[in-house]
Every structure is written in structure tokens, then in C-alpha cells.
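Let us work through a complete example step by step.
Step 1: write down the sequence.
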Amino acid sequence: MLKCSYSSIVPEAGCDEAGRGCLAGPVVAAAVILPPGYANPLLNDSKKLTAPVRERLRSEIQECALSWSVGYADNDEIDTINILRASILAMHRALSGLTMKPGHIIIDGNFFISFEDIPHTCIVRGDSIYSSIAAASILAKTHRDEMMCRLHSEFPLYGWNTNKGYATGFHAAALLEHGTCRLHRKSFRPCSGQLNIEFEPDGHETPS
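Step 2: predict the structure and record it as C-alpha cells.
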């Protein structure tokens, strides 16, 4: 069972992102404030869950959370300010969307830029330790996957309905044959014509 909170400061918001390693589409972040003592035995890092379990938890989190919000930074912003700062920008946008101001923020990872002078703590693998970060990882992942499946209908050549924009062999072959579209991250090496990276096996999305 994951821990309910990191500090005694309330309310505490958990924050995480999804899509940092993708070749196309936005990076998506979520911020979640859970009720005190909230517990769910299924709650975990989104990468450790199946898609059906993530969707089930998404519904419960959105219904039970005291406040939740999702923020985005698009591929143009990623190319302009780099993926790390774009990820933080998406987190800030998610935090801005909360209906209550957190007294403390816990973030998955090891780097963050202060948001509105609210105290924060970075926690490596925090999505496997704290419920609110795990909840944020699930919302970020499910909202991004949903977006990429919608975008697949507009850009069907790249297989985003299965790879969600990650670097699969199918995605690489599509880039070689068709080039990039306006949603690809041009600052990422595979999208600039240098396809000498290790790709995920076809048919298996990278779930983070």
C-alpha cells in the first residue's frame, strides 16, 4: 500500500508527467489532491498497471479527489524550451488548474522549479511511494493516451493509436517513408532525420 502523504502540511498535491520520451505530441502533467487517508490497493505507478486498470483508477481518482487538474505543453513548446522545462511548464499548468491551493507539492523525479512559492519536494520514483503522485501519473498517462488516439485519426500514418507517439519500429519506418508531421518534436534526434536510436518493439507502447 502506498503512503498517503509526505508531510503534515495540507492540502498536499502530487504531481507527475507522461510523454517525455515520445517523438510526437505534447508532454502531459497532472496534479492531484487526495482526501486525507485515501487508500486504494490498486493504486500504483502507471507504468506498472495495465490499460484497463489505469482507466478504472482514472474514473475513481477524478471522482474522489478533492481537486485534480491536467496541463499540457505542446511539441512546439518542447522544441523551443527543451523537454525538461516543458515538462515543468505542464506541471505548473496542472497546478494552476487546481480548485484549491496546495500547502505542499510532491513531485516525481529529481528536479522542479518552484510554483507560486509553495514548498515542494522532489521524490525519485515517487509514483511508487506516494498515493497522490501515483494518482497524478495515472491521470497524466490516461489523458495523454486518449489525446494521442484522437490525433491518430488525423495523422494515421504513424500508428499513434498503438504506440502513443513513442519510438517504435513502425513509427521509425513511417518517419523514413513519410517524414514528420506538424506534431512531431523536431528537436528530437529521430525527427531530425537521424534515426540511429534504439526503438521499442512493434506493438508495445512505452507506458510511462
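Step 3: interpret the result. The beta strands are 12-18, 27-33, 67-73, 104-108, 120-123.
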